[in-house]
Amino acid sequence: MKKTILDLSKLVPGMILAETVLSARKQVILEKDTELTSHLINLLRKWKITSVCVLASHTTRPPSYHDVMFPSLVSGYSNKLEDKYHKISITAGSIFEYMRDQEQLPFDTLRQLAFHDLYNFIDDNTTLTFLYQAKPPLEYTYLHAVDVGIITGLIARWCGFKEKTVQSLILAGLMHDIGKSQIPRSILDKPGQPTVEEKAILKLHPIYGYYMVKSLNHIPSAIQYAILQHHERENGSGYPGGLPSHKIHPFAKIIAIADTYDAMTSNRVYRHSITPFAALEIMANEIFIHFDRDYCKLFIRNAISALTGSTVLLSDETQAEVLHFGSFMSIKPAVRRLDGTLLDLNNSDISIVEVVKFA
User: Fold this and answer.
1) Where are the domains of the chain?
2) Sorted alphabetically, which SMART domains does this protein's record hold (predicted)?
């Protein structure tokens, strides 16, 4: 198969490496046949790689919008999980644009999307890791809404909630940011940190969303409060009400976990994402401050289970397999390098910089 050398600026998710990429110290960064994602392209940039060799068959046409969002569609194959995510994202995008343009809330359509499409999506045990792989180069508000709906559903299922409660939580997660449809695009899409005034406007979105659903009498109060309170925090430091733990609705507490995790592991216009390992470590450190302890423990426990067996790139430019996590409060695992040596990251200044391949 033909190969071609491309500058880093010309790489798009879905391209396949035709040759192994080495660092300046001749360490393996990415192996041959690795499929590039937006995260891995950012990784190459951090390592100051200027060009790579890719399979020419994957560079014959410029990528479309959906090619960039769904990299394996570029590389000529798809699976059931990606097809479902593709269709859901298109539908969600249409709904959110409709809310902005028409200033109406199509609740029945959102409920159908949550109760059927997103609900069926949480049956797959690879969902959490898939969502990280499927991240587009930039965050899109409606994709974040889809992801939060799915992650919220996963947490609800791990909690053992009844089917109707799981579906309601998925709907609440999908709708948690509908108030952003009332925020000017110039603020949402700004390619830099928002100003103090812009942050104040952004913090109004839970209130906007709450009044959008409150005007419809048939929307359950649990969903209304989930939208209003998903930025409240256990120690009272959240917004818009600065509420203490006992006044925050359980739906909002679960969505806060899903929202925070997805936001940290998504690329934004003003910053790059962090790895699931880094995000979970931050959440574990804040579990007694910002998040409901029981829900957050449950989420972290299931998330680290999904990450076990992954191949990761370490800060010393070596690759390793994630073997196990020593304890709940530490998200730093024991790993095995490709040469067979074992390393406990709890007792080392070496860290995980990117996930190369999930188990």
Assistant:
1) 3-67, 79-273, 307-357
2) HDc (SM00471)
Q: Is the domain 79-273 a CATH 3.20.20.140 member?
A: no
Backbone φ/ψ region at 317: left (φ over 0), alpha (ψ -120 to 50), beta:
left
Three-state DSSP at 250 gives helix
For residue 333, give the DSSP letter: E
Domain made up of 3-67: CATH architecture: Alpha-Beta Complex (3.90)
Task: Check: CB of residue 120 under 8 Å from CB of residue 150.
Answer: no
Q: CB–CB of 250/159 below 8 Å?
A: no
- To which residue do tokens 């909002």 refer? 252
Check the CA dihedral 59-60-64-70 and report its sign: negative
Query: Is residue 173 within a helix (H) or strand (E), and if so which, with residue range?
Result: helix 163-175
pLDDT at 60: 44
The amino acid present at 201, given as its one-letter code, is I
Give the whole-angstrom CA distance, residue 228 versus residue 323.
40
Give the total residue count for the chain.
Answer: 359
What is the dihedral sign for C-alpha 308, 309, 315, 316? Answer: positive
Q: State the pTM of this model.
A: 0.85
Contacts of 298 (CB under 8 A, 6+ apart): 155, 158, 159
What are residue 343's DSSP bridge partners?
Answer: 335
131: three-class secondary structure by DSSP: helix
Q: What are phi and psi of 25, to 5 degrees?
A: -90, 10
pLDDT digits 0-9 by tens, 48-74: 888 999 987 654 444 443 444 444 433
